[in-house]
Amino acid sequence: MAVAVMCGEWLVTASGKSLTAVHTRENREAFGFDCSQVEQKPKDAAACDSNREEGAEEKGSDAVLPVEKGSDAVLAVAASPSGRLLVLTDDRKRLLLLSSQPTWHLLSCRWVVRRCTALAFSPDEECVWVADKSGDVYSFSTTHTHTPGDLRLGHLSMLLALVVTADDRYVITADRDEKIRVSLKLAPHNIQSFCLAHTEFVSTLFVPPRHPDRLFSGSGDGTVKLWEYATGKRLQSCDLTELLNQDETDERVCIKRLSSSPDGQHLAVLCERLPRLQLFEMKTGSEVTPTQCLTLPQSPLDTTFDPQGRLWVLLDDQQTPVLLYTHTSQCWEQCDADQPDLKRVTEGLHTHSLPLPDARLYLHQLYKAGFDNTATYRQRKEERLQQRREPSASPQPNGAKRTRALIS
C-alpha cells in the first residue's frame, strides 16, 4: 500500500519497501530509506512468531494483508504532532522509529507480535500506539527506544484504524466488525462508549483539530459519519455514493482516508478506486457541508495537507507522482507543474525512484461475503407442504369418507 503523510514541512511517501521524504519549503536534500537494509530478526525467533501467527489465523476469520509473507513492504506510517519523529512498520513485523532532526536518521528497530494495521503518536510524543491485525493494541516508548511494547487493549476482530485524542484521555479504535470503541487511555479496559452505526468495516478515523471532542469515521459502507465520541452520539452521516454519482454503477464506495487542513476547516475524503476527491467544509462542530469534488486523472493513492493548508495528492504515475491544490476564496485550484514547491517535491521523488505500489487493493478484500443458507431449505419445505396439500384437495370416493368416519 502507498502512504503520504506530512512530518513537519517534509512530505513523506512510502510505497513498497521504500520511504522518501522531501522538504516542501526549502531546497534540502531528500531522504530515502529502504526497509530491506534494516537488521533482520533472528531466525529462531522469527520462526516461532510465524508459527504463532499461523495458529492465530486458523482460529480467527480476519483477513490477511495482501502482501508477500516475509517481504519488506511498508504497512503503516505515522508522524508525530511536532514533525520531529516518524514511525513505520513493515511486513517483517519491524517497528522503525526515525527522527528528522537535525537530519534524518534511524533511532530504533523493534519487533511486534503481529503485522500492524495502524499507528498513532500520543500528543506528548512519549509513546507510539500500535494496532495489529489480530485486534491487539500495544504502546511503545519513544524515549526508551529499545524497550518492548506493552499490551494495552484488544478487540475480537481485525483493527483498521487508531487515534489518540488531543487531550490524551482516550484511545479510539475501529475494527472490521463495524465497531468504534472509545477507551480510557490510562485504563484501556474501561470503555467510555461505542460509536455504532456503520454497516461495513470502519477503515479510517480522524479527530478534527478545531473540535477535539468530535470524531469523523469512514467505512466500507460509503459513508462518513460525525460523532460526539465521549457519548457515542451520531451527529451527521454523509453518503459518498450519492455525492460521487455512483448510483448507476455496482461499484462499492469505500472510504480510504480522511484528512484535514491544520485549521480544521477543510476535510478531504479519499475513496478507494475512484478518480475523485470530495472536499467538505466544517464551520461548526455539529455538521460538515460538501463544497467541491475534485476530478483527478486517475485514482489517487493517498492525500494529505501541509502546514500551510495546501492539499497534496499522491498518484501512481512516475512522471507526475504528486499533485498540489491550494484553496482560494472560491474553490480549490490545481497548481501548475512549474510551481516551485511542487517542482521540488516531484524532482525529489524522481531522484529516489519511488517504486510503484502493489496493484492489489486490500480494503476491498475486507468486505464479508454474504450468503443465504436457508433459501434451499425454504424451497424444499414449500414443496413438501404443497405435496401434502394436493391429496387433501382432490375429491375422494364416498366409501373412503365413510371408512374414515367409522374409524374416527
TrEMBL record:
SMART domains: WD40 (SM00320). It is found in: Nucleus. Pathway: tRNA modification; N(7)-methylguanine-tRNA biosynthesis. The keyword Nucleus applies. Residues 381-408 are annotated as: Disordered. Residues 381-391 have a biased composition (Basic and acidic residues). The keyword Repeat applies. One of its GO terms (biological process) is tRNA (guanine-N7)-methylation. This is tRNA (Guanine-N(7)-)-methyltransferase non-catalytic subunit wdr4 isoform X1. It comes from Clupea harengus. The lineage of its organism: Eukaryota, Metazoa, Chordata, Craniata, Vertebrata.
